[in-house]
Structures are given as C-alpha cells and as structure tokens.
Amino acid sequence: MAVKRVTARLTTAALAAVVGGGLGAFALAPAGAGAATRTAPVTATAATTVVTRAAASSCATGKYQKQVEGYLKRLGGYGTVTVDGKQSAADCTAIVKFQKRFGIQPAKGLAGPTTYDVAKRLATTKTSACKPKKKGVTFCVDLTRQTTWVMKNGKLSVKPTVTRTGMDDYETPAGTFKINKRTRKEWSDPYEVWLPYWQRFIGGRGFHQTTTYLHDKWRGSHGCVNLLEQDAKKYWSIGKIGMTVKVFGRRPGT
C-alpha cells in the first residue's frame, strides 16, 4: 500500500500533537498562518521518526547502558533491545518495563547502578544450582545473588526474581527446610509490623512481602526472605505446608 502524503504547515503545536498523540492527533495549521510557517509534506513514516526520536531523547543514557542492554537481551521478555550502548526508544521502553517489574525507582529508563545490579543478578542466576527435588515443589533462594525462584518436579516453574535476605547479625541460614506456617498477614511482635503473605520455614524466618524499598542495599531483613508484592502473592498462591525451601550460598557482606 502506498503511503499517503499529508501536506501541512508544520507548526510547533502540530509537531507536539504528533509526538503526544500520534498521527490521529495531528492538526493542520489554518490557512494564512503567516510567513514563519512553512508548508511541508509529512508522511506516516516521517511522523513515526519524529515520535521515535523524541521518545529516545527524553530517556537518558545511563553509565551501564550497554551492560544492561546485554543482560535484558539475555533475559528476554522486555522487548527489542540493541546491545550497542546507545539509548533508543526501544531500549528505553525495555528498561522501563524491567524497572517496573522489579520495583526499581525511579522507573525512567536510566541504566544506573541499581538497574545494572538487578539485571546482572537475574541474568547470572543458575537455577540448576538449587538441586531441587525430582518430585513436588521446591522454593529456591540464592543468598549470593539475592534471587529466588520456584522449581516443580525438577524443572523451572517460576522464573528468578529479586529478594533481600538478612545481614549483619540476622543472616538467613542456608539449608533445606519445610514451610511450617502460612498466614495471609502475620504480625511481628519484635518489630511491630505486619508481614503480608507470610510463609515461615525456620524459626521466625520466612517469605513475606517487603515493607520497605527492596533495593536499599544498606539494609537487610531480620533473617526473612523479602519479596516484592507480586512475587509474594505468587509464592503464596503456590505454597503449602510441608513444601521444600532450599537456601544456599552466602549474602555478600555477611
């Protein structure tokens, strides 16, 4: 199909309409708008180029641009990414999607240290290192990479996501455990806070939705496995009393 050409006087307002709302929002300048406006042919392709360039320019290039592009390409599922270290509209969209998925703030497409750290941890997680049971469900926690995932019948069931475990004098212990208590919302007496989607597996430690910003690296849990809300809900929907939890590795700094 031939591209239809639209002749218009491309004013600043018209350009803004193209960028903000696409061709459907494009308005023609009134006749006799003045000598300052020029009549220019605008095609759908040209308008798309304008939008793409505008979107790319609004998304800054971060220090770890190329590394993040590489990790997102390896992970897959976030859209088209070109590994060249140059920010594009497609790269920006993919990075924002990734940031929103893993609760990274602000989610504006900048490939900064937090985005780089999370992408690297997820992309380098080896799910087979969990050595799950051949039958049934195993919740896996990699203390070294601060990631967690779920295996079912020896195969990956829920992809790795980020977590935050204990540090300093509250390390999350490595070992093989069983879920022994589940409460949709558990009250913590020592710390006076609600723990949503609580699934205990040893002592006073268990999975639950984080009550603070997960990516604050200077903080840790008091031994629990902190999860983002959507992951805590997912784990809750899967978990049952008696299911296996395998914790291995060691959190950096502990």
Automatic annotation (TrEMBL):
<dbReference type="GO" id="GO:0005576">
    <property type="term" value="C:extracellular region"/>
</dbReference>
<protein>
    <submittedName>
        <fullName>Lipoprotein-anchoring transpeptidase ErfK/SrfK</fullName>
    </submittedName>
</protein>
<feature type="active site" description="Proton donor/acceptor">
    <location>
        <position position="208"/>
    </location>
</feature>
<keyword id="KW-0133">Cell shape</keyword>
<keyword id="KW-0808">Transferase</keyword>
<dbReference type="GO" id="GO:0071972">
    <property type="term" value="F:peptidoglycan L,D-transpeptidase activity"/>
</dbReference>
<keyword id="KW-0732">Signal</keyword>
<keyword id="KW-0573">Peptidoglycan synthesis</keyword>
<comment type="pathway">
    <text>Cell wall biogenesis; peptidoglycan biosynthesis.</text>
</comment>
<feature type="domain" description="L,D-TPase catalytic">
    <location>
        <begin position="137"/>
        <end position="248"/>
    </location>
</feature>
<keyword id="KW-0961">Cell wall biogenesis/degradation</keyword>
<keyword id="KW-0449">Lipoprotein</keyword>
<feature type="signal peptide">
    <location>
        <begin position="1"/>
        <end position="35"/>
    </location>
</feature>
<dbReference type="InterPro" id="IPR050979">
    <property type="entry name" value="LD-transpeptidase"/>
</dbReference>
<feature type="active site" description="Nucleophile">
    <location>
        <position position="224"/>
    </location>
</feature>
<dbReference type="GO" id="GO:0071555">
    <property type="term" value="P:cell wall organization"/>
</dbReference>
<dbReference type="Pfam" id="PF03734">
    <property type="entry name" value="YkuD"/>
</dbReference>
<dbReference type="GO" id="GO:0016740">
    <property type="term" value="F:transferase activity"/>
</dbReference>
<dbReference type="InterPro" id="IPR005490">
    <property type="entry name" value="LD_TPept_cat_dom"/>
</dbReference>
<dbReference type="InterPro" id="IPR038063">
    <property type="entry name" value="Transpep_catalytic_dom"/>
</dbReference>
<dbReference type="GO" id="GO:0008360">
    <property type="term" value="P:regulation of cell shape"/>
</dbReference>
<dbReference type="InterPro" id="IPR036365">
    <property type="entry name" value="PGBD-like_sf"/>
</dbReference>
<dbReference type="GO" id="GO:0018104">
    <property type="term" value="P:peptidoglycan-protein cross-linking"/>
</dbReference>
